[in-house]
């Protein structure tokens, strides 16, 4: 089945289960893999832990979780089994979180051992080779035990549950079986104690280790756990930040080099996805920024890896070219658009003098719209565009609304560039995120003077602010009147004084407080307004702003053509305006047809300008 964090029901859910042809391609691929590989009965059940021999050799489950939380499941994906050595990767991450990287590094190495996972051998400086072999995993349990004592296992179980997105239990029978037969692990533990790697209470540490290996999971759980690693430590199903991105990187590194026992080199060569296997039959594989895979089949090869699970991983990597070292991306696609504001103004309507300044100084504002996750390569390309190909624009707007993430390296490069541009007199304006955005925080933290950065949620607001700066710098806003004469209205252009006086006589003066709604979408369109002072915003019901209007402009003019209002008009400041009822105006138009014709021509010109502006924006985006 396929699932989302919030499962669908009813007709929407039924759509996913009707006919094979409606299944997503990845779902079909996993179904085909399951059908093909389930016939492979080679391999043996693990026998060095007696209870594991009771596993059903026919069990075979596959689950894949994307980083947006979509779950694909095939076969026995909900069959429980013990996590065994798959736990090592996640307990290593927990040890890093609990005692810190320096302490862990002093206790455990990170090099492949070249030997069996249960080898009783240490490095030349008497440390375990890495946290993926038994010696290193027991040492990780010891580090956690030193901090939490008797609460160590509960900390482990709780952390693994957070990775899985649900509470995980323990198979007591397997735990008892491992405890009764785990003499080789006891030998490893006492060797570690001999070199002061473990604390005095060796048996208690071993019990933590035995219990963590006996935690019950499913293939689905492993896929969610893997996707949490792939998603920089955020569980994509629950949305919880389980572990930090820094720890994720260290964990995935060791999984890559040592996660598949003494098959790790072959695995990296053939599959190229960080992974960890366990003798319970599970495999967990995490491809950063893309997916997490969990498989379960208890038949093992001579490396103690699941036979069917290996085949699924190899097929997935080969079919979709997922090897982590075979990546291809064009950094130039990170810039969706690069333009000045000629013909692409904000939604703020301007007085003629103000618009003239913007038309003459349009190149003073440069806008770059970014798309996709920003990393070292894409930000390097952006910074080169900004520094080696400058248009000498004193106002630079960079829009991040299509950017879901930025790496630390990318934020570092961008921060340095914005600092340098600020020193050269460029005002940087960033748009597309809220103040709480992680992308904004990362950039601001790496800019020498973040207070000099301007931040806006909407690109249109950023463009409007930049336009105001240009207008102010070049003599605008000096002749703004508190009250505009109707002769300045574009809708009333070319009307003589007598005609305008007649319009005034038909109108009523209205006053509105800041925040007051003047016109409501859906209500009858029975009047139009001439704004004399103050500012108003025209907005859709969703809150999206269509326009900002100032003195000398009209709103509600579409009432001449429409029967109901299509948008809200809200006072941004104290507003004074003249309201002209349409029924009264209709009588006037019948008596003065020439005046009516002028007004209709003016309305057509206004609508044409709006259409030209909209087409310019469409043409701009389609050009990239």
From TrEMBL:
Keywords: Acetylation, Hydrolase
Record field: catalytic activity: L-glutamine + H2O = L-glutamate + NH4(+)
Binding-site residues for substrate, renumbered to this chain: 85, 134, 178, 185, 209, 261, 279
Enzyme class per UniProt: hydrolase
Entries under PROSITE patterns matching the protein: CNMP_BINDING_1, CNMP_BINDING_3, STAS
Domain Cyclic nucleotide-binding stretches: 491-585
EC number: 3.5.1.2
Gene Ontology terms for molecular function: glutaminase activity
UniProt cross-references to SUPFAM superfamilies, sorted A to Z: beta-lactamase/transpeptidase-like (SSF56601), cAMP-binding domain-like (SSF51206), SpoIIaa-like (SSF52091)
Domain STAS, residue spans: 355-466
Gene3D superfamilies from the UniProt entry: DD-peptidase/beta-lactamase superfamily, Jelly Rolls, STAS domain
Chain spans, region Disordered: 1-23
CDD domains given in the database record: CAP_ED (cd00038), STAS_SulP_like_sulfate_transporter (cd07042)
Family: Belongs to the glutaminase family.
Oligomer and partners: Homotetramer.
Record HAMAP family: Glutaminase
PANTHER family, A to Z: GLUTAMINASE (PTHR12544)
Protein name as it appears in the record: Glutaminase
Record organism: Bradyrhizobium symbiodeficiens
